[in-house]
Write a structure and sequence with these properties.
This protein is an all-beta fold and 130 residues long. The chain contains no helices and six strands. It is elongated and about 50 Å long. The N and C termini lie far apart (40 Å).
Length: 130
């Protein structure tokens, strides 16, 4: 029996599962620094720890790089170039202090009704964002 291991600790260089399965097959070229809540350690980004829904406890990367190349179209509709390559950007990485897109498309945000801040692609999309 292996207890639940959140995506944010998979391939982080530390064994969290008794059988060590959270650190097996951790081959990836993209890395980030995990959040302070996770000990600010170097994290290899692979499919199992990318594109998770972030929350205060399990935000994976300080710079939101884990929210690139996500395939769910409702969560990742914007396309932009990141380091010259076209990619999707998860809605969880939009309107943050850091910019992932080369042209800063992910920072094109505005106040909506009620004062919440949303990305320009979310206006009039049929979904209640605020």
């Amino acid at each position: 029996y292996t207890p639940y291991v959140p995506p944010s600790v998979i391939c982080d260089g530390y064994v969290d599962c008794r059988d060590g399965s959270d650190e097996v097959d951790c081959i990836g070229t993209d890395t980030c620094i995990s959040t302070e809540n996770l000990g600010s350690k170097n994290l290899t980004l692979i499919e199992r720890n990318r594109c998770s829904i972030p929350n205060e406890l399990y935000l994976v990367c300080q710079n939101y790089r884990d929210q690139l190349n996500c395939s769910h179209v409702l969560d990742s509709p914007p396309l932009c170039k990141v380091n010259g390559y076209m990619t999707t950007v998860s809605r969880y990485a939009l309107c943050k202090d850091t910019s992932l897109c080369d042209n800063e498309l992910d920072k094109k945000c505005d106040a909506a009704e009620g004062g919440c801040i949303i990305h320009k692609h979310q206006f009039c999309d049929g979904y209640r964002d605020c």
